[in-house]
Amino acid sequence: MTTNSTSPDAPVQAIDPFWLRLIKRSVLVLLGPLYFLFIGFVPLLCARRKGFRGWYWRLVKRACSRLLWLLSIRVEMSEANKRDLAGDTDSVIVINHRSHLDGFTLMDVVPDEKWFTFAAKKELFDAKLLKTGFLGAGLVEIDRKSGKVAMETLSKAVQEMPARRSVVLFPEGTRTKTQSLGEFKAGAVLVARESGRSIRPIVILDSDRLLPRGQFMPLSGTVRVVALPPFHCDPEAPVDDDVARLRAEMMAVFDQK
């Protein structure tokens, strides 16, 4: 499998000329807040309607795609990967985490047929507007004060999800600061084992080159996303062995240049 990842020392190649990037970002500054405020308020008005979650899911995906377009950021994934993900069921998605762009790029490139959601800390649900939107979009509320309770809540939510929906987990726990993948935590493997689901590893490449830590406005360029084959846990092996094997498979793709 070839990713054609770019060397971290190579200059970022913008995908639009400067004048077009300037126009797009001006539109984003002027109209973006109104557009995303509209998306935030939609659940308050429509969350109880039949079929709302599917409709709202597509609306949020389109919003992410428009945001990346206005930022002159292109997301690439092979057609074979898209076909695989469109038919993906009974999985937990794990992705590496290097930039605030990661969630947006995933929303943009994964086909509509594949539904996924994220886990969000309980404190974010305290605000009425955010809670209605998060619940409407199917986000999983997690109380991080207790690791045991958080795992139980997450596992229960995954077990109750329809087969076509997956929760997205960051095995590194937070954005990494190194050029390599960070150490993986066991959460995704534990959830997969308890729910009987497979793990669908997805590797995101070059997002940190466009928006590294400490930078507010991303550069224009291309982010590559690679979906790996399903990873099946070995219930007879120690959890740490599965975690190491999962990281090794993702590293094999991440390290290809």
TrEMBL record:
Q: Output the Pfam families linked to this UniProt entry.
A: Acyltransferase
CDD domains linked: LPLAT_AGPAT-like (cd07989)
Q: Cite the annotated pathway.
A: Lipid metabolism
MF GO annotations: 1-acylglycerol-3-phosphate O-acyltransferase activity
Q: Does the keyword Membrane apply?
A: yes
Residues of the Phospholipid/glycerol acyltransferase domain: 91-207
Q: Which UniProt keywords apply?
A: Acyltransferase, Membrane, Transferase, Transmembrane, Transmembrane helix
Q: Where are the transmembrane segments?
A: 27-47
- GO biological process entries: phosphatidic acid biosynthetic process
- Keyword RNA-binding on entry: no
Q: Which PANTHER family does this one have? A: 1-ACYL-SN-GLYCEROL-3-PHOSPHATE ACYLTRANSFERASE (PTHR10434)
Protein name, entry field? 1-acyl-sn-glycerol-3-phosphate acyltransferase
